[in-house]
Write a structure and sequence with these properties.
little secondary structure
C-alpha cells in the first residue's frame, strides 16, 4: 500500500481546551485557577518545601549528628576471599595481588579506599602469594 502526500489519512487528535473564553465553556472567567490567592496569579510556580510562609518542617526539626569529613574508608579483606579467587582461576597464584585485581573481581568497592588484609580464623600456609594493599593485620603481615 503506497501513500501520496495528498492522500494521507486524517489523525484524530484531542482538541486543546481554550481557557478564558466565556463562562459557558467551563474554563472561562478564572480559567480553572480557582478564586484569588497566590496560585491564581500569573507567574506562579510552587517552590519545593514551601509551606505558605509557615516555618518549613526541615527548619522546625532539630539538627542531629554531624558528618565527619575526615573519615577514612577502610575496606577489610580476608585472605580466604583471595584464596577463593585463586582456586576459581580468576587470579594466578604466583602473581602480586593489587588493589586493581581486587576491584576487578569485586572484593573492594572503590579503588581509592584504604584496603586492610586480615588473616581470618583458619590457619593458612601459602608462600607464593604476594599481596600489595595499604594495611595488614599482625598475622597477615607475612603476605606483604
Amino acid at each position: 500500500m503506497s501513500f501520496s502526500l495528498n492522500e494521507l489519512p486524517k489523525i484524530k487528535r484531542q482538541t486543546k481546551i481554550r481557557v478564558g473564553r466565556g463562562i459557558g465553556s467551563s474554563k472561562g472567567k478564572t480559567s480553572g485557577r480557582g478564586v484569588k490567592g497566590q496560585k491564581a496569579r500569573t507567574g506562579h510556580h510552587s517552590v519545593k518545601g514551601f509551606e505558605g510562609g509557615q516555618t518549613p518542617v526541615h527548619m522546625r526539626l532539630p539538627k542531629k549528628g554531624f558528618v565527619n569529613n575526615l573519615k577514612k574508608n577502610i575496606e577489610v579483606i580476608n585472605i580466604q576471599d583471595i584464596l577463593k579467587l585463586i582456586n576459581s582461576g580468576k587470579l594466578v597464584q604466583k602473581m602480586t595481588v593489587t588493589k586493581d585485581n581486587l576491584f576487578e573481581n569485586g572484593l573492594i568497592k572503590n579503588k581509592k579506599s584504604i584496603v586492610k588484609l586480615i588473616m581470618g580464623k583458619n590457619p593458612i600456609d601459602i608462600k607464593d602469594i604476594k599481596i600489595s594493599v595499604d594495611k595488614y593485620s599482625k598475622k597477615a603481615n607475612k603476605f606483604a
